[in-house]
Amino acid sequence: MKKKDSQKNMYAHSEKKVELLQKYLEIYLNVLSNTFVKRINLFDLFCGPGIYENEGIGSPFIMLQEIKKASTINNKKAIEYNCLFNDNDREVIEVLKRNVKSKIDHCYAKINYSCQDYKDVIRATILSMQELLNSEKAFAFIDPYQYKDISISEIESMLCTKKTEILLFLPTQFMFRFESNGTPKSLKRFIEELVPMEEWPKSNTGIDFIQSLKEHFKNHLGNDYYVDTFIIQREVNQYFSLFFFTSNILGFEKMLEAKWKIDKDEGRGWIYEHSYNLFSGNKSSITQKFENELKEYLSRSRTNKEVYEFTLHNGHLPKHTNEVLKAWQNEGILSVLKSDGEQTIKGSFYLNYKDWRDHPGKVTIQTKLQ
Ligand SMILES: C[S@@+](CC[C@H](N)C(=O)[O-])C[C@H]1O[C@@H](n2cnc3c(N)ncnc32)[C@H](O)[C@@H]1O
After folding, report:
1. Which of 122, 137, 103, 115 lies closest to 28, judged by CA?
2. Strand, coil or helix: 135
3. Res 227 pLDDT > 60
4. Is the CB of 149 under 6 A from ligand 1?
5. Residue 129 burial by Cβ neighbours in a 10 Å radius (0-12, 13-18, 19+)
6. How far is the CA of 147 from the CAs of 53, 187, 200, 341, in angstroms?
7. Which residues are paired to 139 by β-bridges?
8. How do residues 8-20 score in pLDDT, each as one tens digit?
9. Which neighbouring-strand residues pair with 227?
């Protein structure tokens, strides 16, 4: 069958997808190299040819490059890497094999190629994730053209193992377009896995649709799981999104770091103008929204553990919360107390993974009534 141009060449919006994948894997593999993990299993379930005709680099090559980096930079301990590259198009898998053979001199991973339909490979993937040892981790990249085969219950089954992180691309713009326009069966099925169709809110824009989806994923999966999005704009008002899922709070923080790094480079990131700054008033809507949510949340006393979790659940980094809290401290509207009721050193809020794990109640934080 004749291939579409998008199957032969990599487009700019797809480069954004793999940029996030690359940044995330770079941090994730580096973090895991300092832990007890002995084997990392990477699954690319809609893998494509690895290298496109216009030289664009696809997800399997990004995985192999990052594995090589992690294996050569971190020679502290040997980690075994397994990759499963799957695509239902046999020709694509043959091209990928040839590309790996001709372009990679030393491969640091054991590669299994598979040519199955997603519906079949996902079942086998879940089973193998359920059998992972405690010293193993898994990461799945799911990058379909369409959403019709994607099922939330399968995402949940992978997450339940508590050893897996998932990056899922969804063509949300197409989903949004049909949300209230003769909703097709496949979209109804997708939404109804999350909420009865009549409870699904009508979205005004593609971005609204993505936000709704994220909130419903979060509600459906519950507090033990973390979900965030990375929005990719294709054309004016056309938004597609990557969704990231994990049960691992540190993995989630690392993913947010990767995302904020790209957002910063693109100018959509975090700009916090302290309110005592003469030139304040420039806060972006993202920053302002988070500040308002944090103020509301801290109207009750919260521990550093709770504030760390709140920050991440809301898609922000501890350094963002630290900035806001410092400004409030300077304005005299924040109380931060140690567990013995004493004041803490100014600017210390203990919002980090280590204190979350080892000293979850080191301080309590609350805004003061004005
Ligand atoms: C969006 S592309 C993947 C791009 C790839 N992740 C990359 O970064 O280059 C989707 C790929 O999935 C394959 N595909 C389409 N439907 C599939 C299915 N039902 N099961 C498995 N693979 C499928 C296509 O042949 C195509 O190569």
Report:
1. 137
2. coil
3. yes
4. yes
5. buried
6. 26, 8, 18, 52
7. 42, 165
8. 777 777 888 899 8
9. 245
The two structure tokens encoding residue 1 = 């069958």
* 241 class by beta-carbon count within 10 Å (0-12 exposed, 13-18 middle, 19+ buried): buried
Instruction: Tell how far the Cα of 87 is from the centroid of ligand 1, in angstroms.
Output: 6
Q: In angstroms, what is the span from residue 143 Cα to ligand 1's centroid?
A: 7
* Digit-coded pLDDT (tens) for 318-342: 999 999 999 999 999 999 999 898 9
Closest CA to 115 of 137, 130, 96, 138: 96
Strand residues in 45-183 grouped as ranges (E): 80-86, 110-114, 136-142, 164-170
Is the pLDDT at 276 greater than 50? The verdict is no
Cβ–Cβ < 8 Å for 360, 369: no
Other residues' Cβ atoms within 10 Å of the Cβ of residue 23: 19
User: How far apart are alpha carbons 338 and 344 in whole angstroms?
Assistant: 6
**Mutate which of 15, 17, 47 for ligand 1 pocket (most atoms within 8 A of beta carbon):** 47
Given a contact cutoff of 8 angstroms between Cβ atoms, the answer to whether 35 and 74 are in contact is no
pLDDT of residue 110: 97
Task: Kindly list the strands in the beta sheet with 110-114, ordered across the sheet, starting from the edge strand earlier in the chain.
Answer: 110-114, 80-86, 39-44, 136-142, 164-170, 239-246, 226-233
Are the CB atoms for 86 and 116 separated by under 8 Å? yes
What is d(CA 25, CA 229) in angstroms, rounded to the nearest whole number? 16
Q: Which of 142, 209, 141 is nearest to 175 (CA)?
A: 209
Q: Is the CB of 88 under 6 A from ligand 1?
A: yes
Q: Which of 153, 80, 164, 83 is nearest to 130 (CA)?
A: 164
If residue 240 lies in a helix (H) or strand (E), which one and from where to where? Answer: strand 239-246
Strands 226-233, 136-142: parallel, antiparallel or unpaired by DSSP? Answer: unpaired
Please name which of 77, 134, 80, 142 lies closest in space to residue 109, comparing C-alpha atoms: 80
pLDDT for 369: 67
Q: Is any atom of ligand 1 closer than 6 Å to the C-beta of 253?
A: no
How far apart (Å, rounded) are the C-alpha atoms in residues 110 and 38? 14
Average pLDDT of the chain is 90
pLDDT of 1 reads: 60
CA 345 to chain centre: 34
